[in-house]
Design goal:
single chain; five-stranded antiparallel β-sheet; alpha+beta
Length: about 325
């Protein structure tokens, strides 16, 4: 039998469009699906008709074990070694950063159709608090692995054709911080975006994009308990006055759509506008009677490379998780 994404044996985490009963769609790396079944076999089904070649990459994990990288395809079969009840998690790992992820036709999307299994089993609840990370290419995991190509031809080192291998949402500071604090992650990161500029994949500036999964799809994920904003790296070349003006608008939008969340403004890891952001947060709180927290991330790692490698993300996550634990009393 084939069960839809809305079945009790399936759970979606992240920014998913669920406007159609036939499929769930996400364009945000770090979003994932889980399903539970009894037996030794299950098949996850996807629609890849509009996907761009090279195909985006997924992580596949069964029963909390080893994560295996695979390209998305129409069918993804899971075979277990033993009978019993199993849980499979499939995560949008990364893909071609320039593929269209905002306006139709969506080329860099995961379209999940459901699961084929003889014995679907209801998933236990995931009641962990939700933390949403709002950022750019660093938050979505761009160029984390630039050394996988060792021994290959140099022109292929950093091109878009291999970005599924370079990028990894699960190795980012955002994912690692959520794991360290036992929070359920929702990740919104799009390359080249900022508060003063639109980005790749035809994604609007952060304050215009935040209320949506993609164009025409209002966000419907559960309300986050916490929101961490990391924007500034792509705004580093504009005047600080423009940056803080646009950042204040983003804060207004986040507060409107996530009214119960505790918000942290995390300054850019390259150090851009960190003092201007600190002053903005002080002024914003005084003006609005809010309690947005400022965290200086500009001194944790080297500003080069602009996209941290795995070690850089680990360092950021170590510092950030300690700060958030203190601020949020976790």
């Amino acid at each position: 039998m084939v069960v839809p994404y809305s079945h009790e044996s399936v759970r979606l985490t992240g920014r998913w469009d669920t406007s159609s009963p036939e499929c769930a769609v996400t364009v945000a790396p770090g979003s994932y699906l889980e399903f539970s079944f009894e037996g030794k076999h299950a098949v996850a089904r996807f629609d890849i008709e509009a996907n761009m070649v090279p195909l985006l990459h997924l992580w596949v994990q069964v029963d909390g074990g080893v994560m295996t990288e695979a390209q998305i395809d129409r069918y993804l079969r899971v075979n277990t070694l033993t009978e019993g009840i199993h849980v499979c998690r499939i995560i949008y790992k990364g893909g071609t950063e320039t593929s269209n992820r905002w306006y139709a036709p969506l080329r860099g999307k995961v379209t999940f159709l459901g699961v084929q299994t003889e014995k679907p089993v209801a998933l236990p609840s995931d009641n962990r608090p939700i933390v949403e990370f709002v950022g750019d290419s660093i938050t979505e995991g761009v160029l984390i692995d630039v050394d996988y190509h060792e021994g290959t031809v140099p022109p292929f080192d950093l091109d878009q054709l291999n970005r599924g291998y370079h990028d990894d949402a699960c190795a980012t500071y955002a994912w690692l911080t959520a794991e360290a604090l036992n929070l359920r992650p929702v990740i919104m990161g799009f390359g080249a975006t900022g508060v003063t500029k639109a980005g790749l994949s035809r994604v609007p500036a952060a304050q215009d994009a935040y209320p949506f999964n993609f164009d025409g799809s209002p966000v419907t994920r559960p309300q986050p308990d916490y929101v961490v904003i990391n924007h500034g790296a792509n705004d580093r070349r504009v005047a600080a006055e423009l940056y803080v003006e646009k950042y204040a608008i983003l804060l207004d939008v986040v507060r409107l759509h996530s009214p119960n969340a505790k918000i942290v403004a995390l300054s850019a890891f390259c150090g851009a506008h960190k003092e201007a952001l600190r002053r903005l947060i002080d002024d914003y709180n005084q003006k609005n009677g809010t309690d947005v927290q400022y965290v200086n991330g500009g001194d944790w790692i080297s500003p080069e490379p602009l996209h941290p490698l795995r070690d850089g993300h680990i360092t950021v996550a170590r510092h950030l998780s300690a700060e958030l634990k203190r601020l949020w009393k976790l």
